[in-house]
Design a protein that fits this description.
alpha/beta; globular; seven-stranded mixed sheet; single chain; 271 residues; six-stranded mixed sheet
Length: 271
């Protein structure tokens, strides 16, 4: 298959980044090798663009990105190829519902590259800022720029509560996408948004098919993407339930899981 691979898609947290939120040197070296050879490398994340740019700068990566799990696609020059948002009125209803239910969670509101938090002093928001190396601003949906909708809501839930929140959000808002991305993170986006759909859109932009690509992921919101490509590789740190679903696995994100696969596929084929 290595002779036909034209693009590599990679999730960020738990996949491209290790537990210290860094790209390991060996993984970075192999990404540069495939980019130099003309193979596309695409960062795919639930993060906002501002949470992805520091990774790209630190590792000198000139590549396309898919943000908000597919709600925003940008090419190598940061031109917007695709953007889809939850309309403002629906966003206001979602925000009000979360507040009225009294869930033990912290909410983040993203629109384009704007990040708002009703309580930016919440330790959960502050921890998210530290991880993604970006800063939120105090505000709610009504504080968005005129005419702007919401690219994504992020609910940072108290441990042990996410399944209930997920179930009730899906029942209350069947016309949006509600996706669990970790044991405490719940993503809410426009209906139909997924990493898999974004991969298909970007492949169409390149004039290739998903079968000519591979992908790396480690969590529930990566499953559809891993199924959509020619070969999906599950990181060794993924939940066992996900690892059982796919025939191709690799080492965990602290032990060069991505580099292991790229070296196996491309040694002797690219310089």
């Amino acid at each position: 298959m290595e002779h036909t691979i034209k693009a590599v898609f990679s999730d960020v947290d738990g996949t491209l980044l290790n537990a210290s939120h860094r790209v390991t040197p060996r993984t970075g070296e192999w990404i540069h090798k495939i980019l130099k050879s003309g193979i596309h490398f695409v960062i795919v994340s639930a993060r906002s663009p501002s949470g992805i740019y520091p990774i790209m700068r630190r590792n000198d990566l000139h590549c396309a990105l898919i943000a908000y799990s597919g709600a925003l696609i940008m090419d190598e020059e940061r031109n917007v190829l695709y953007s889809r948002q939850i309309d403002r009125q629906t966003a206001l209803r979602i925000e009000a519902f979360i507040r009225e239910q009294g869930y033990d969670l912290s909410i983040c509101i993203y629109s384009g590259d704007d990040w708002l938090a009703p309580d930016k002093s919440d330790p959960r928001v502050m921890n998210e800022e530290r991880i993604v190396e970006a800063e939120s601003r105090q505000g709610t949906v009504k504080d968005l720029a005129p005419g702007e909708g919401v690219s994504k809501f992020l609910c940072i839930c108290a441990p042990g509560t996410i399944l209930q929140v997920e179930k009730e959000m899906k029942a209350a808002f069947p016309d949006v996408a509600v996706v669990k991305s970790s044991d405490i993170l719940l993503e809410i986006m426009a209906k139909g948004i997924s990493k898999a759909e974004a991969v298909e859109r970007y492949c169409a932009h390149l004039g290739i098919t998903p079968s000519e690509t591979i992908a790396f992921g480690d969590n529930y919101n990566d499953v559809e993407m891993l199924e959509a490509v020619g070969r999906g590789y599950v990181m060794g740190n993924a939940p066992e339930e996900i690892r059982r679903r796919f025939p191709f696995g690799t080492a965990d994100n602290d032990h060069d899981g991505i580099a292991d696969v790229l070296e196996q596929l491309f040694t002797g084929i690219i310089q």
